[in-house]
Amino acid sequence: MSIAQISLPKGVGAPAEKLFEAITQAGTAEELNRAGGKAEGFVLGLESAKAIKSQVAEALYVAYDDAASQRSSQLAG
């Protein structure tokens, strides 16, 4: 799942996509962990501020987690 498939409020899409790209383009495991942590904090902040619904937050978590798992496999291989 990509970020583009998730219906996000105005102003949230660009930073969400930037975080997704940071995950998918991480060059090391350390960069991947950092990018994943930033993405998780971003979603938590949006959810805490009630800027997104819980279903949207879950979709973002899944998208970021899937991307991180795939990138981790690529870096390991």
Describe this structure in words.
With 77 residues, the protein is mainly alpha-helical. The chain has one domain (10-76). It contains 3 helices and no strands. The chain has helices at 13-24, 29-48, 54-76. Helix 1 (13-24) packs parallel to helix 3 (54-76) and helix 2 (29-48) packs antiparallel against helix 3. The radius of gyration is 12 Å and the shape is elongated. The two termini are 22 Å apart. The model has no long low-confidence stretch (mean pLDDT 96).
The number of E-state strands comes to 0
Distance between the termini: 22 Å
Mean pLDDT: 96
The figure for the number of domains is 1
Contiguous helical run count: 3
| Sheet having the most strands | none
User: Can you give the helix content as a percent range?
Assistant: over 70%
Rg estimate, integer Å: 12 Å
- Unreliable runs: none
Secondary-structure content class:
mainly alpha
Shape: elongated
What fraction strand?
under 5%
Q: What is the ordering of alpha helices and beta strands?
A: HHH
Summarize the structure.
The chain is mainly α and 77 residues long. The protein is built from 3 helices and no strands. The longest helix has 23 residues, at 54-76.
Break the fold down into its secondary structure elements and pairings.
Layout: H1 13-24, H2 29-48, H3 54-76
